[in-house]
From TrEMBL:
Coiled-coil regions listed in the entry: none
Protein purpose: Catalyzes the oxidation of glucose 6-phosphate to 6-phosphogluconolactone.
HAMAP family from the UniProt entry: G6PD
Keyword terms of this UniProt record: Carbohydrate metabolism, Glucose metabolism, NADP, Oxidoreductase
Stretches assigned to the Glucose-6-phosphate dehydrogenase NAD-binding domain: 9-186
GO molecular function annotation: glucose-6-phosphate dehydrogenase activity; NADP binding
Organism: Endobacter medicaginis
EC assignment: 1.1.1.49
Binding residues for substrate: H177, K181, E215, D234, K337, K342
InterPro entries: G6P_DH, G6P_DH_AS, G6P_DH_C, G6P_DH_NAD-bd, NAD(P)-bd_dom_sf
Name of the protein in its database record: Glucose-6-phosphate 1-dehydrogenase
Length: 482
């Protein structure tokens, strides 16, 4: 549905996220008719650029991240006409804010203005204070905070406190782009619109859950950010725990933001705490060494970085949600860079039959929910091998590709989420309490990792041997190892 004209201000406008994700997402929304005439995208950063120079950068980025067939020159020009630039150090109170204030001088007060902070989280508090001091925080204003919010529990609390001084919780959108992925939203449909699954969604029927977000890329140009973050802060604390909440939560009373957040928060609170003594057993910390990707040699993490580092590029861990529904079902979470494939998926492994009348029944049923690359759902069921003799069973798959089923382009997660911030719908965002509960749970791991160092794994493999050993000890295997 089309929206009323709005203003979208992006702090950190010259950065990677803006170029790679935000501008392409806004362009697609424009193309689909969701950016009304008069809507404006205002990039802001310290670099001294003017509108024309920023539009050039935006044009280059769109050329890079959108297929030429989808970039009609006339549409591109019309979109770029909606893009502006203000040169400003938003974290500085004594910066010259006049150009930013001028942007809003004639804007009607009810017009939605979104401030998207694609900057380092340390700046969030200062930027919000300055926006408020400059009189730019109207009731129709919203602020979007990129993850990670802080680098530990303490800093997350501080950021939430300071942003909370200037924006009400209903105006704050903590973005986690995994929640905007179509298949993550589809998980809610799968569970609560299909009793055939929800009736089996508990520890009676399910023996384990795996959630993997594997990437082939290394850290490349993002080393300055990544080396202070690492996989636990970059992926597990937010994306994977959020996905886990949607897998594990109870049916919410409705799809209203409040109802869904209450259920997600209950999951985070029910997580079995990890004690310092547990960390060595239930968490694997890895860092890629040189290896091979697609037959080509690639350098290790510290070689790319140019200095020594204890930052992890791989994490695998075993969590439990201590609730009536889940009992002690293990949730194995795993994420890493320089792994063999780019794949994000949830794998639900069901229990084996109590007794087998077949000679070789070996594989349990498995439901694979693919977030990417090819969004879909796969259910493996044991079937008779069509040989004329005997009764030999083999797994066969029911495989749904959403793109084929619906025959349309799958929008990027940011497209949905950016428009939700304009609409004011926060169901796919993180509440303060969730962010802090997630940090509370990972904090003992961060503390334990102040000592020791990650285990190396060869680039192009599925992480350190210890990740496999952790599942071996439970008599299980990672999905890719099957
Ligand atoms: C981001 C992380 O949040 O997610 C990146 O900061 C990571 O390190 C990216 O590459 C992965 O997102 P996606 O959508 O490609 O799985």
């Amino acid at each position: 549905t089309p929206l009323e004209p709005f203003d979208y201000v992006v702090f950190g406008a010259t950065g990677d996220l803006t170029m790679r994700k935000l501008l392409p997402a806004l362009y697609w929304r424009y193309r689909d008719g969701q950016m009304p005439k008069g809507a404006r995208v205002i990039g802001t950063a310290r670099s001294a650029l003017d509108d024309a120079a920023f539009r050039d950068r935006a044009r280059d980025a769109l050329g890079k991240f959108i297929k030429p067939a989808d970039l009609d020159p006339a549409q591109l020009a019309e979109f770029l006409d909606m893009v502006f630039y203000v040169s400003l150090d938003g974290a500085k109170a004594d910066a010259d804010w006049s150009a930013m204030k001028a942007v809003f001088a004639d804007a009607p007060p009810e017009r939605v203005r979104v401030f998207y902070l694609a900057t380092s989280p340390e700046l969030y508090g200062d930027i919000c204070r300055n926006l408020s001091d400059q009189g730019l925080v109207t009731p129709a204003a919203r602020v979007v905070l990129e993850k990670p919010i802080g680098h530990d529990l303490e800093s997350a609390r501080q950021i939430n406190d300071s942003v909370g001084q200037y924006f009400a919780e209903t105006q704050i959108f903590r973005i986690d782009h995994y929640l905007g992925k179509e298949t993550v939203q589809n998980l809610i449909a799968l569970r609560f619109a299909n009793p055939v699954f929800e009736r089996l969604w508990d520890s009676d029927a399910i023996s384990s859950v795996q959630i993997t977000a594997a990437e082939t890329v290394g850290v490349e140009s993002r080393a300055a950010y990544y080396d202070h973050s690492g996989a636990l802060r970059d992926m597990i604390q937010n994306h994977l725990l959020q996905v886990m909440c949607l897998v594990a939560m109870e049916p919410p009373a409705s799809l209203a933001s409040e109802d869904v957040h209450i259920e997600k928060l209950k999951v985070l609170h029910a997580l079995k705490p990890i004690t310092p003594g547990d960390v060595g057993q239930v968490v694997v910390r890895g860092q890629y060494a040189s290896g091979e990707m697609d037959g080509k040699p690639v350098p290790g993490y510290v070689e790319e970085l140019g200095h020594d580092s204890n930052t992890e590029t791989f994490v695998a861990l075993r969590a439990e949600v201590h609730s009536w529904r889940w009992g002690s079902v293990p949730f194995y979470l795993r994420s890493g860079k320089r792994l063999p494939n780019k794949v994000s998926e949830i794998v639900i492994t069901f229990r084996r039959p109590p007794w087998s009348i077949f000679p070789n029944l070996s594989e349990p049923n498995k439901l694979v929910i693919r977030l990417q690359p090819e969004e879909g759902i796969e259910l493996s069921i044991m079937s008779k091998d069509p040989t004329p003799d005997g009764m030999t069973l083999r797994p066969a798959d029911i495989d749904i590709s959403f793109e084929k089923a619906f025959g349309r382009r799958y929008p990027d997660a940011y497209e949905r989420l950016l428009m939700d911030t304009v609409r004011g719908d926060s169901v796919l965002f993180m509440r303060r309490a969730e962010v802090e509960a997630a940090w509370t749970w990972v904090q003992p791991i961060l503390d334990a990792w102040k000592h020791g160092s990650p285990k190396p794994y060869k680039a192009g493999t599925w992480g350190p041997e210890a990740a496999r050993a952790m599942l071996d000890a439970d008599n299980r295997r990672w999905h890719e190892d099957m």
